[in-house]
Design brief:
166 residues; 6 strands; single chain
Amino acid sequence: MVLIESGQIVKETDPLAEPPYLQKGMTLSNDDKVHYYDELKDKYDEMIKKIDNFEKKCSYIHKQVKTLEKVKCRTRNKKKVSKRFAGQNTTSGQFEAIEDDQTIPSGWKSSWRMMDGFSKGNKVKVYWSPNGKFCASRVSALNYMVTELNSCENDIQIMREGLISE
């Protein structure tokens, strides 16, 4: 901004610079304060909004840090437990292998599982995938084939036909 009086440049000011009444060391008379009241009030309201916005941002970041600390503590304290699937060749005598099962795709194995507890003496057919994953039922084996192994349609069809025959 350029101030011109009588054709002479009196003062050249930067539009982003503070107004003269806000510069350091400036004292305002009561008349000046009344004159600039609305402008000062607008600047004060703007400053309050900025402070409120910063407080909201700090609160949000604080919540995020607390959440991340909780997650970090949970994962740090968790003991690593490796899942070990009971294999078909256990010495417990719990499984009785089914040789040449035509109702499962090649690479899969099936066994009769001898039940304990209330169902003692009963047999349930269980399955092992080619990678050794234990499936307690044909339905869970089918689900594993589709979701994890991405098996071919022919293998899935063989397993489905076995489901119908059971």
